[in-house]
Amino acid sequence: MTIRLQVIGGGQMGEALVGGLVASGWATADDIHVVEPDADRRVELESSVPGLTCGAEPLNGVDALIAVKPHMVATVCGALAVAGVGRALSIAAGIRLDALEEGLGTGVAVVRAMPNTPSLVGEGASAIAAGTNAADEDVTWASEILSAVGTVVVVDEPMMDAVTGLSGSGPAYLFLLAEALIDAGVAQGLPHETATALTEQMLIGAATLLRESDASPSVLRQNVTSKGGTTAAGIAVFEAADFSRLVADVVSAASERSRELGGT
User: Fold this and answer.
1) Domain spans of the chain, in order of start
2) What is the pLDDT of residue 106?
3) How many Å apart are CA 96 and CA 157, to the nearest integer?
4) Who contacts 123 (Cβ-Cβ below 8 Å, separation ≥6)?
5) Cβ–Cβ < 8 Å for 70, 93
6) CB 45 within 8 A of CB 15
7) Model confidence pLDDT, tens digit, residues 175-217
8) 130-166 burial by CB neighbour count: b if 16+ within 10 A, else e?
9) Using an 8 Å Cβ cutoff, are 72 and 64 in contact?
10) In this predicted model, what pLDDT tens digit does every residue of 1-10 receive, in sequence order?
């Protein structure tokens, strides 16, 4: 049996990627090995994905997907450098390519990624950036892995902070909007369960329409905003509060915090 990929970290994102890779046909469970220090978690993973193997230490010479918390990356890179790894894809938030390359050693092809939490349900949005030693085939390899759980775009690393502010943190913005919409529906007399169901489906439906339509967000908005109608009344409140400026400030603040955490 030949292991094609070792996933370093058996948390939610690591497990989601294993499931996505198997479901997409990129690999079988037998092709993947998960490195996870927690023995109970290893048992859980092997039980949930038949054929998957897990261990406590990295394998020698096997491509690696680094899916651990940022504070663990230096230790993981050190262990992988000792084991020897040809290339690595890191989804650890905020860890820059130069730090990864230094930790993994000379000549290792490294790709850095910024996924988001909808990857857990196969609807993620990920951006990847190539390191100094990463060739086109390494970028393709990384893209194929993350495509198993959503959409992937390739960017230069300096854009990663903006990606973090937009799509990395973006799901939380929509969750906050969902909270506010549900509360607003309840304030208008709807039962909480009803307001929740309507809000969830409205967001899913609007997102699906946006993705599947050839129309821009602006056109789609105009299509449901009749002059003097109910939607126009609601939109007017957003505009009076300078909604676009507020959103720009939100993304800017998150992007700037990403720069601070990354030391740039």
Assistant:
1) 5-157, 170-262
2) 84
3) 8
4) 149, 150
5) yes
6) yes
7) 999 999 999 999 999 999 999 999 999 999 999 999 999 999 9
8) bbeebeeebbebbbebbbbbbebeeeebebbbbbbbb
9) no
10) 578 999 999 9
pLDDT of residue 262: 79
Q: For the segment 119-128, what is each residue's pLDDT rounded down to a tens digit?
A: 989 999 999 9
CATH code: domain 170-262 is: 1.10.3730.10
How many whole angstroms separate alpha carbon 12 and alpha carbon 21?
A: 14
- Summarize the chain as % helix, strand, coil (round to 5): 60, 15, 30
Burial 57-67 (b: 16+ CB within 10 A, else e): ebbeebbbbbb
CB-facing half-sphere around the CA of 6: CA atoms within 13 A: 24
**Yes or no: is domain 5-157 CATH 3.40.50.2300?**
no
Tell whether the torsion through CA atoms of 174, 175, 180 and 183 is positive or negative. Answer: positive
Contact partners, residue 52, CB within 8 Å, separation at least 6:
18, 29, 30, 32, 33, 34, 45, 46
Q: What whole-number distance in Å separates Cα of residue 122 and Cα of residue 149? A: 4
Contact 13, 120 (CB under 8 A): yes
